[in-house]
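[Q] Does anyone have a clean structure-token version of this?
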Amino acid sequence: MPDQRSLPLWAGRTLALVGILLVALNLRTAVAAISPIADQISVDIPLSSVAFGVLGSLPPIAFALSGIIAPLVARRIGVDGSIALAAAAMVIGNVVRGLADSYTVLLLGSVIALAGMGFGNILLPPAVKRYFPDRVGLVTTAYVTLLSISTAGPAVLAAPVADTAGWQVSLGMWAIVAFAALVPWIFLLLRDRAARAASVRTATASADGDAEPIDDIVEAPEPAMLGHLLRSRVAWALAIAFAASSLNAYAAFAWLPALLRDISGVDAVSAGLLLAIYGLVGLPTALVMPILASKLNNVGPLFYLAVGCYVAGYLGFLLAPAAAPLLWVILVGLGPLLFPVCLVLINLRTRSHHTSIALSGFVQGIGYTMGSLGPLLVGLLHDASGGWTVPLLFLLCTGLVATVSGLLMTKPVFVEDEIARRA
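[A] Here you go.
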């Protein structure tokens, strides 16, 4: 059998590669598709500030819950089946949103679509580990880049499509992209089913009767693995960094325009442009960081680099907010380079995709839970203090917390090795 490391990227894995990339292209469409056309939707479906706030808080909540549920589902039906289920949920959710005639239906469709996206968040790293253990950095770079495009695409297209064809089409059209992501996984499931049936027939026909049964349906680790992760330095290092990145990112998307208007003196249009720049700054890091992390034994400096960007950006806002707001936004926007680094390390610090499933659920479950609190805590601190100094100091401290992750990740330790030593 040839060495897997010598195989071309597409050798026997074309369906998996296409499936992973297409799912990544869908992982943020439902997040970014509503806010640009909220006014058009409100004409037919009244959206109060509370109702709109609920829709805005759904993504991190759905993603956090997926960190708990997705590994359990993967244990029952496998990684491929779970990703196919996630893609189907995205198709159904987007269709329901496009057909919505009431807030209840719009909310239901959003929940279904975001649940599918949450499952995709958790299961794509293990899928990369399973199909591309020799190209983890490259494939992670590709899918994180498409995930960034998934965020930007709806923001750019939503309003023009809504103006031309209506807001229902603007929301529902993403079901087509989700269906395209579903197709490769259906073929993978059919292919694996045929291969499994052939293996069972071979085992049954074995002359000596000693052939072992085929059992690769259960692909996730034992439930005890989650308990082991609670005592894993690697797991907590990644969870802390992912939480810091998520909290700061969601807080920025919620409050950065208001902060810029209040303390940097920019107008509303410029504040919106700077928010777009904040989001786009992450694209170069998505291209570089996974590959860089895969080549370094000591990834601690990558965490320190992110912390340094957070500190420099927030100190700029605190000490000279009007001097160089563009520079401060770029620096703060570079802080979430922790996101692609954590995603690739989920695979680089596990030996099998079974453990990768549990680690992905653990890290992203904690991370998105903390992320969902970011906008709320910043808002409360702003209201309580009457300004932005206290919220900025809070965000600065949350960025500094990722230093702990850097200290814990100085050596290439695998989660399984930690468990074995403890046992």
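[Q] Thanks! Anything notable?
[A] The chain is about 80% helix and 0% strand.
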